[in-house]
Amino acid sequence: GDPGPTGKSGSGPESGFGLFPVLKERARQRGGTLSGGEQQMLAIARALMSRPRLLLLDEPSLGLAPMLVKQIFHIIEEINRSEGVTVFLVEQNAHHALAIAHHGYVLVNGEVGMSGPAAELLNNEEIRAAYLEGGV
């Protein structure tokens, strides 16, 4: 078959193990007994099994330890950069999200308050003061 998002042929469980080796160690464990970070990895791996061109992620860092947040964002960036999957990310952790994004939108009361290239948003003083101070 065609290479999937992990660069390997097929869309079975093995395709997710390339990005998430810890899941291979836990392959016989029920998903509900995994840690929060492992459950997030499992959710992403399951989504990638269908070899999508677009991956929608809602708050992937919610409730995760800081080390796991870094790991999840690194993997999200890898999925986009190496696998060619477009990632649409909704995330309150503005610093991490903008650090890996190409383009960003800042919502204020449900409406787009500002948008632009992620690097510009990261360096915008108004955004830094409102969303990034203390989150860096």
Features:
alpha+beta, two-stranded parallel ribbon, disordered N terminus, 4 strands, 17% strand, 45% helix, 7 helices, 136 residues, elongated
Architecture overview:
- This protein has 136 residues and is an alpha+beta fold.
- The chain contains 7 helices and 4 strands; from the N terminus they run αααβαβαββαα.
- The chain has helices at 14-17, 21-25, 36-48, 66-83, 94-100, 118-123, 125-132, and strands spanning 54-58, 86-90, 103-108, 111-117.
- The strands form 2 sheets. Strands 1-2 form a two-stranded parallel ribbon. It has a two-stranded antiparallel sheet with strand order 3-4.
- It is elongated, with a radius of gyration of 16 Å.
Produce the secondary structure layout.
Blueprint: H1 14-17, H2 21-25, H3 36-48, E1 54-58, H4 66-83, E2 86-90, H5 94-100, E3 103-108, E4 111-117, H6 118-123, H7 125-132
Parallel strand pairs: 1-2
Antiparallel strand pairs: 3-4
Shape, principal axes of CA atoms: elongated
Order of strands, widest sheet: 1-2
* Radius of gyration based on Cα positions: 16 Å
Largest sheet: 2 strands, parallel
Element-level helix/strand string: HHHEHEHEEHH
Helix amount: 40-55%
The chain-level structural class is alpha+beta
Q: What is the beta-strand fraction?
A: 15-25%
Total number of helical segments? 7
Report mean pLDDT, rounded to a whole number: 83
DSSP strand count: 4
Query: What is the end-to-end distance?
Result: 42 Å
Given as residue ranges, the uncertain stretches (5+ residues, pLDDT < 50) are 1-10
